[in-house]
Amino acid sequence: MGALASTYREQGRWKEAEKLEVDVMESRKIELGPDHLDTLTSMANLATTYSGQGRLEEAEMIQVQVMETFRTDRRRQRKLEVQVMETRKTKLGPDHPATLTSMASLASTLWNQNRWEEAEKLDAEVMEMRKTKLGPDHPDTLTSMADLACTWKCQGRHDAALALMETCAEAQRRILGPEHPSTLSSASSVEDWRN
């Protein structure tokens, strides 16, 4: 259900995505608990959908809740993410989409902790593996590209970051359309970074 919700979200089918994401989140709260990484991921996905619908206050409330939960025990989160990533590598393979998603999640956590060199290594690895496995124009590949560009920007690698984000924004415009939230976000970054 989560994968289908993600597909709906990528297509801008917000209402359909929202219904599935609420179901997934509630099921995970019951089955895994409110602080489980998968439950929090579901909440973050729902916040993204609310944001895409322009429901910014609701999105912010969920994001704050997720962020506060993550802050309470980042070490536990990172350990869980590493454990999930390693298990997925062993069981599914290093280039399986679920493994790559785990790697991207861990990179995001490292990024949020200002551990940009570690985040960069994972971001680059995920992007290259997604290019190979899914193709250079797949939405997940483009997300990885944007993530790596943001990491480079935080490292002060302005020119490289801008060039990669421009490439990403152009591909998103072509693949997802000019009004897709990911396209708009990348285009906004390009504009901000040029100034």
**What is the percentage of strand-forming residues?**
under 5%
Strand segment tally: 0
The CATH architecture category of the largest domain equals Alpha Horseshoe
Q: How many separate domains? A: 2
Name of the CATH superfamily of the largest domain: Tetratricopeptide repeat domain
Mean pLDDT: 87
> What is the overall number of helices?
10
Please compute the radius of gyration using only Cα atoms: 16 Å
Strand count, sense and barrel status of the largest sheet are: none
The CATH top-level class label of the largest domain: Mainly Alpha
Task: Pick out the low-confidence regions.
Answer: none
Q: Given the helix and strand composition, which structural class is it? A: mainly alpha
From the N-terminal CA to the C-terminal CA, the straight-line distance is 41 Å
**H/E topology pattern:** HHHHHHHHHH
Oligomeric nature of the chains: single chain
Fold-level CATH name of the largest domain: Serine Threonine Protein Phosphatase 5, Tetratricopeptide repeat
Organism: Cylindrodendrum hubeiense
Protein name: Kinesin light chain
Structural summary, described in words:
- With 195 residues, the chain is an all-alpha fold.
- It folds into two domains: 2-72, Serine Threonine Protein Phosphatase 5, Tetratricopeptide repeat, CATH 1.25.40; 74-194, Alpha Horseshoe (Serine Threonine Protein Phosphatase 5, Tetratricopeptide repeat).
- It has ten helices and no strands.
- It has helices at 2-10, 14-32, 37-52, 56-72, 74-92, 97-112, 116-134, 139-154, 158-175, 181-194.
- It starts with a helix and ends with a helix.
- The model has no long low-confidence stretch (mean pLDDT 87).
